[in-house]
Amino acid sequence: MTEQSDTLLSAAARPDHPAHARTAALRAELAKAGIDGFVVPISDEHMSEYVGAYAQRLCWLTGFNGSAGTAVVLTDPAKGAAIAIDGRYELQVRDQVPAGLYDYVDTPGKTLSGWLAGHAGEGARIGYDAWLHGEQWVKAMSDALKPVGATMVPVDSNPVDAVWTDRPRPSDAPLRVQPDVVAGQGSADKRAKVGEWLKEKKLDATVITALDSVAWLFNVRGADVSRTPVPLSFAIVHADGTAQLFVDDVKLPPEVKAHLGNAVRVAPYGEIIHGLDALAGKKVAVDPERTVQAIIARLEAAGAQIERLRDPTILPKAVKNSVELDGMRAAHVRDGGALSRFLRWASLEAPKGGIDEIKAATQLEAFRRETGELIDLSFDSISGAGPNGALMHYRVSEETNRPLENGSLYLIDSGGQYIDGTTDVTRTIAIGTPSEEMRRRFTQVLKGHIALATAVFPAGTRGSQLDTLARMHLWADGVDYAHGTGHGVGQFLSVHEGPQRIGKSAGGQAGTEEVLQAGMVLSNEPGYYKPGHYGIRIENLVIVVEREVAGAEHRMLGFETITFAPIDRNLIDLEMLSGPEQRWVDTYHAEVLTRVGPLVNAEERAWLEAVCAPLGSA
């Protein structure tokens, strides 16, 4: 471990860590409620990946600020508490959450349900907030506890909220119209297609709960979730194409009301429960992966006939139309100009000293804002110097901030939200002279990136079938990475958009078995992480496109890369690249220069020409 990592670990183990007092307060509240434990997820009423500040209960309670995790606190301190995360966060959780207070459930073969079954005891009643969990989760947890005689019980009110005295209020940011000229299809047409889908299924209505689905369906955007332009809202769409939108009136400026029109009835956000009650006796579609248990229970209590089907907007949102794709391409060229300017700045300033992770991330955001088109970042930038780069979803703070030091690697994973597209790109650069090991690992990651970028595959291929291409060169050395290789990306929506995904299929991981279709946008981001030393990731976004193959007996697909920014040639071991791989890098860099060159000044272009010159040239 480095000195910095030791500092991070000691910070998590401080006796004055806020988690101690907050967990004790929660236990006192649980005792008053007469329950033996409570589950605290990162979630909201929409089962969102990224949630508003008001819903950051896990972070407030434990100090863990990753985007995926769940804790359980047992009322009896002697029985303990635990926090479960995935492989992306196994180092981060140890840095942020006190080990003596929470057990870490983060290794293969360990689950939160398993931990709970082993600690709760017979007769234990474990509470959960039905507005934060899906019915599949409730069933799985209940089944896991049944053999030990414990049960899951829904609570009337969330006990964390009772002790979180300064909890933020939900956002009241106004909605904005996403113009048809950018969306490529009007909201009325989208709603009509949902209505046709309902008629085909012989259903009366569907409840749309995912925030990005509501935003896409109504061609609106919001600012209620940091970095994700969505409004807090629910919708019910009927078979005749009419709809109800549940969003507070204070958030609706006149132009949005005019845009929604008479076919959309608007009601306050909290009145969704009355909208559900009004579906009594109706045949209603709900998406079990995106709908909380409370909504399903309310429909059942009202006497609705529930059909569990995937949200009908999911695939149309993922398979983007030509207008959306053109917008994504334009956004990425614009964004690539800002990133290229930043990479030049970093290459000149970092070796001098005085640049740290926060300064670097701030400078990159400044370059993006200078485009005049940036609305927001698409996520908090992962600005990781040296060993912090090995934390896959690291978030820099004043306490963890490191300088960019000579002889180290710097990883910057960042993106922007523009009205025409969402970007997500990672570059790893050498500060000074990299080691041979760094160059070897970087080149292996690059070879995997190229293998995926150039893949040609038959229609019907799933993301899990392509994942090995990105990992095989690392596997040859007995190393790997603990995150997926690719995720879907929205158009001025969520930077993580399903259902498509490229990754290992173990355990039926969500999205990896989704068939890839032309028009989908995904990331291509293999990586390597050496704990305590450095991290490497190369990420571009790609569009699934049709490919012509001579003599093909099947319809074939491939990828079009739409991210344009130079790849650090100082980290490439040319002897490890084949001729076709070198040509891919040269062709890619030539396109970077063609597309991004006009967006930078003369000095920046001279630098860009040098770093985009063919490999092997002086």
Automatic annotation (TrEMBL):
Species this protein is from: Sphingomonas lacunae
Ranges of residues in domain Creatinase N-terminal: 22-156
GO molecular function annotation: metal ion binding; metalloaminopeptidase activity
Cited PANTHER family: XAA-PRO AMINOPEPTIDASE 1 (PTHR43763)
Family designation: Belongs to the peptidase M24B family.
Domain Peptidase M24 span(s) in chain numbering: 327-546
Cellular component, GO annotation: cytoplasm
CDD domains, per database record: APP (cd01085)
Protein name as catalogued: Aminopeptidase P family protein
Keywords: Aminopeptidase, Hydrolase, Metal-binding, Protease
Domain Peptidase M24 C-terminal: 556-615
